[in-house]
Amino acid sequence: MPLDAAEWIERYRRAWEEADADAVVALFTPGALYRSQIFHDPHVGSDAIGAYWKQATATQEKVEVRFGRPVVQGNRVAVEWWAAMTEVDGELTLPGCLVLRFADDGRCEELREYWHVESGRRDPPAGWGE
Fold this sequence. Notes:
Elements: H1 5-17, H2 21-25, E1 28-35, E2 43-44, H3 46-57, E3 61-67, E4 71-73, E5 76-87, E6 90-102, E7 108-115, E8 118-119
Parallel strand pairs: 1-7
Antiparallel strand pairs: 1-2, 3-5, 4-5, 5-6, 6-7, 6-8
């Protein structure tokens, strides 16, 4: 049974907070493209996505992730995210946006994310995520 966008986003949020690379990989098609930084080559396929997530979350602690209201058009979804965490160098806030394309079975076949990093834990501005 395919996942709807809100359920997919919730599972992605939980997997990030729990640093669960296997749970993230399960949300993607086997040959999915995951572009974590727009000027870098994408991570392609389950193994590459899993390896990226293990590396990316290895130093993250006390992770709190929020998502805004998704904008859905057909099989495409855009959604803002706001993450706060503790890293080796201290506390960080990472606001960003996911642009997703879904396969018919509800798994993601392409992800592009745009994000910014700021020192310290910060709350989103008023009206964020709506």
